[in-house]
Amino acid sequence: MTATPSPEGRLLTRVSVPGKLILMGEHAVVYGRPALVAATSLRLRVDLYGAGRSGVEVELPGVPHRAHVSWPEISRYASQARQQWERYDASPTPEEFALLHDDRPDRLVLVALGEAIAALGEDPCSKDHPLSTLRLRVDSAVPMAAGFGSSAATAAAAALQRDVLFCRYFF
Fold first, then answer.
1. Residues 6 or more apart whose Cβ sits within 8 Å of residue 156
2. Which of 112, 102, 107 is nearest to 17 (CA)?
3. Beta carbons of 65 and 106 less than 8 angstroms apart
4. 86-119 residue pLDDT tens
């Protein structure tokens, strides 16, 4: 299936997700127990635009960070992250846990996009693929490192964006 890549600068889709607040049971969920959770009115928004060159332009103005990443780089990064998590899952030591984190501000976005590509069996590398050239921008009112779920919101919104676009172009 072929299609024309999206025009540069055109907003393709927007996803908005809330932050969360765990009212009770914050540590219990680690052991599979219930917790009392509420969504906040603070939201994280991911906008996806057509872009001018192959790959994904990632913009995180709140950090601030901007990078261009090719689809093969995204796939490799997500695969390496998955392997690190599998090693940690097999041997949950502090040393293995320390290897899970790197200093890339866009790591959650790259992992979410890479996992979405893998799950959908997609190869957006072809210049004729409608999603081969994208610009992804994350704007957030959800505070980072404050327990409001900014990491989960970022990953969920980025993955959802990819799924929404896949359905829009192919179904």
1. 17, 112
2. 112
3. yes
4. 999 999 999 888 888 888 999 888 888 888 778 7
What is the distance, to the nearest Å, from the Cα of residue 65 to the centroid of all Cα atoms in its chain? 15
Amino acid at 31: Y
3 state SS of 132: coil
Distance CA 79, CA 82 (A): 5
Cis peptide leading into residue 64 (ω within 30°) = yes
The token pair at 116 is 């979405």
Task: Provide the 8-state DSSP code for 32.
Answer: T
Burial pattern 23-62, b for ≥16 Cβ within 10 A else e, equals eeeeeeeeeeeeeeeeeeebbbbbbbbbbeebbbbbbbeb
Q: Where are the alpha helices (DSSP H) in the chain?
A: 71-90, 94-98, 107-120, 150-170
Cβ-Cβ contacts under 8 Å for 75 (sequence gap 6 or more): 114, 117, 118
pLDDT higher than threshold 50 for residue 5: no
Q: ∠ CA 57-60-61 to the nearest 5 degrees?
A: 120
Amino acid at 68: H
How far is 54 from 23, CA to CA, in rounded Å?
44
Q: How far is CA 6 from the centre of its chain?
A: 20
Tokens at 83, concatenated: 């392997």
> Are 165 and 56 contacting, i.e. CB atoms less than 8 angstroms apart?
no
